[in-house]
Queue: 2 jobs
Job 1
Amino acid sequence: MVNLVLLGPPGVGKGTYAKELSRRLGIPHISTGDIFREEVKKGTPLGLKVKEYLDRGVLVPDSIVNEVVKQRLSMDDCRRGFILDGYPRTLNQAKALDSMVRIDAALYFTAPKEVIIERVSGRRICPKCGAIYHVKNIPPKKPGICDICGSKLIQREDDKPEVVERRLRVYEETMRPVIEYYRSKGLLIEVDASEPVVERIVLKAIEELKRRNIIS
């Protein structure tokens, strides 16, 4: 059984590593963002409450986020462990999580700012079928055109270099206390995610977990 927290700046590839780790370790990948989006889509009481905050452009309060995570971690599929992605985002959330379960490690994926900006700003999305490309790493056969449905590819506003840089600054300021909290507890494992090969980055994380006897 292993309970993991995943940390890392926007654009570092956290969601991708989480899915691969989930597959290899046989434990669920829990994304608080996905949970909220699903609740909003279903129009549940929680979803309506969350939508209210999102529409106002403010963060969902810790009390609501903590309750959502607590409910999710109580489900049967988490008995053998879990991978938390997108939580905790504040020191209060990190402490609340400690009161719910034992955390074995916080995997902190890092990459130089320039690498992240290039990675994110090169992303192109098909507005029709949702296919994702990258001008350098996964280019479409025909520049600017989706291979699948032939639609014109777009760049999301928050993928533009100046927006990415601002998001990285905000992340650095808000997440520093959480990162230092796990470092002070001896649970932080830094994983260099600057290379483009997902499998190698995931293997680095697994090797480090084995080295510390967190997994066998």
Job 2
Amino acid sequence: MRDWNDEELERYSRHIILEDVGIEGQEKIINSKVLIIGAGGLGSPIAFYLAAAGVGEIGIVDGDTVDISNLQRQIIHTTNDVGVPKVESAKQKMLLLNPHVRVNTYYQMISADNILDIIKPYDFVIDGTDNFATKFLINDACVLANKPYSHGGILRFSGQTMTINPHKSACYACVFNAPPPPNVVPTCSTAGILGAVAGMLGTIQAAEALKFITGVGTPLYNTLLSFEAKNMTFRNVKLVKNPKCRVCGDQGLTSLTDYEQAVCEVKNDKNS
């Protein structure tokens, strides 16, 4: 057990008084390492809540800079950050919120060449990206490296998420198999996104990470949670691990390759 100072006890008091978390759970949070891939609409609330919770080491990956069109939903960035690398903008706000956390920045795009090295030090990975190619690559890498992770996707008024425990629960490829052909699925830039939807889903993903770290509750293993914000309906779809899955099945992947890019998806509730 670490030595707690008065400031830490006060800062994390609302976690500590939770019967299911307590001082032991908060210590697990402080000793944990979580990687967020994407510092945009999903990554913004995820980064804020993980920093606020006191996750000891947080990595954040993004190769983009802040654009004014991002500000409608990417709440960790401000008008003054336009043109600044998103990872640096996010780090600054996270440390202002909680100077006790360590933030590692990766100002680069994820690829088959670098992802395994990037995810290696972390206990849990969160997919906050907006394109199929990267989502499938994250799944492949996490399964190959046996890293638990949270998938998330948003579009228009909808969101979806699932948590993957490699080789034990269904992975992303068990459900979706492969990316769609380019230009088949609309993008957030062409179809739009209600800004608050990103906050809703990112907050759920942050909660999944904290549940995993503390051992509280049941993560969304073998479950696809989807919601439609227009009428505020939520749906849980039970999933089954596919023994013949090309990624996590008996004859699964042994190496990584990059996928052809296609952007920003979510599975429609009516088809799930």
